[in-house]
Amino acid sequence: MLDFSHQEHVKSYYFDSRNQNIKLPPLERPDEADVCVIGAGFFGLSAALELAEKGKRVIVLEGARVGFGASGRSGGQAINGFEEGIDEYIVQVGFDKAKRLWEMSLEAIDIIDERIAKYNIQCDWKKGYATLALNERRMEDLIEIEKASHEAFGYNNMQLWDKTQLKRHLGSDIYVGGLYDSNSGHLHPLNYCLGLAKACLSLGVKIYEQSPVVNLTEKYHRLEVKTDKSAVISDDVILATNAYIDVLPKSLHRGINRKILPVESFIIATEPLSRTMADSLINNGMSVCDNNLLLDYYRLSADNRLLFGSDSSAEKDMVSIMRQNMLHVFPQLENVKIDYGWAGPIDMTMNSTPHFGRLSPHIYFAQGYSGYGVALTGLAGRIIAEAILGDDERLRVFEALNVPSVYGGKLIKRLATKIGVQYYKWLDKYR
After folding, report:
1. Mean pLDDT calculated for residue range 383-392
2. Between 315 and 122, whose confidence is greater?
3. Which of 41, 101, 229, 290 has the fewest C-beta atoms lying within 10 Å of its C-beta?
């Protein structure tokens, strides 16, 4: 799942519907920059863009292609908040800092709005996101979320829908209600990532593809980032490898790989549906997920395909499994053809808390978005850029969050992931 260097994009609906074809050369001779970013996904490109806008010389090294990983394969939902409930952060860091975290999660959506407008990124950005409950107990969870966000933080963009209200917009009978957020949304992730790359290039950022990093050392008070063919000398380094951190040498990650459990998510895309059929499924353009621990998520594409995804384990016939999941929600799609099926890794943490910080005064990282990466990566890029530019106040808020480690190497990680998947399946069945 995590082998990636010197590869082309995975075959997917996103790849076949990309609106530009960026191909950049590998690093073949030594180069120099103020900041070297390792990884050309949402976070790496966001950080590079923020720094380039402030006049910094930036080089981005990518082991495969721009947007090769989760950034170019994800469900595309941009959601405010965090996977871990904000009440947990109140316990960890106090109300004031928890409120700051919530406000920053809203800023993450604003960043998408800003960049799409500023750089004219064509990525099918639409607002509207609904979290749906499969039974009354889980509906109570959504009621508490709406109450807490409104009363504690004054957030007024959420609406609770009962079954009747939900049916006005969604052609499925399996849910008892939902929580609709008019500020969150969804986009074409690969086109957004390619748009960020194009914006970076327009500001002078150098992006080298097919340039996997093999070592990181300090050299004459600067950092030397070695690829398999050459090297970059820089003042600061940003690790933007996320779920792929396990395949990097220890000289790069210095143990923070223990914070990450790569979990596979799988998506299928139907053939294009008629407008009538598409509207009968979702008539208001929203993206949707349930509130299972191992959740289903889905939305309509710009050409009226249903994109349907689930957190999953890597089983043999995932297209067939996913089709059955889809038909459980929308049995009316029984005769609809599946055109695409693809997988990608999500960088989860043990408690779903994002992990941002520093390995040294000049080596920065952000990872562990836990399914919220479309939005949080943009925020992470801004916060890390701020720290490099001399203001680390917001980074320190994230550094105060507790993120447990997983010890024992890759084998233990794989075992922990498998056990966790089965445990979550059991919880979803009975809670």
Report:
1. 98
2. 122
3. 229
Highest mean pLDDT among 134-148, 174-188, 341-355, 392-406: 174-188
135: three-class secondary structure by DSSP: coil
Please give the backbone phi and psi of residue 211, each rounded to the nearest 5 degrees, phi first.
-130, 70
Could you tell me which of 190, 172, 180 has the C-alpha nearest to residue 75?
190
Q: What is the 3-state secondary structure (H, E, C) of 257-308?
A: HHHCEEEEEEEEEECCCCHHHHHHHECCCCEEEECCCCCEEEEECCCCCEEE
The residues facing 367 across adjacent strands are 355
Scan for tokens 């320190």, then name that residue.
Answer: 396
Are the C-beta atoms of residues 232 and 28 closer than 8 Å to each other? Answer: no
Task: Give residue 315's pLDDT.
Answer: 60
Cβ-contact 177, 290 below 8 angstroms: no
Candidates 288, 292, 266; CA nearest to 425 is 292
User: What integer best gives the mean pLDDT of the chain?
Assistant: 91
CA distances from 425 to 286, 292, 320, 413 (A): 26, 9, 18, 18
From residue 421, alpha-carbon distances to 114, 295, 377, 414 in Å are 37, 11, 25, 11
What letter would DSSP give residue 201?
H
- Whether pLDDT at 411 is above 80: no
Question: Which residue do the tokens 């479309």 mark?
Answer: 374
**Tens digit of pLDDT for each residue in 150-163?**
888 899 999 999 99
Q: Cβ distance 232 to 33 under 8 Å?
A: yes
Amino acid in position 213: V
> Which of the 8 DSSP states describes residue 256?
G
What is d(CA 269, CA 204) in angstroms, rounded to the nearest whole number? 36
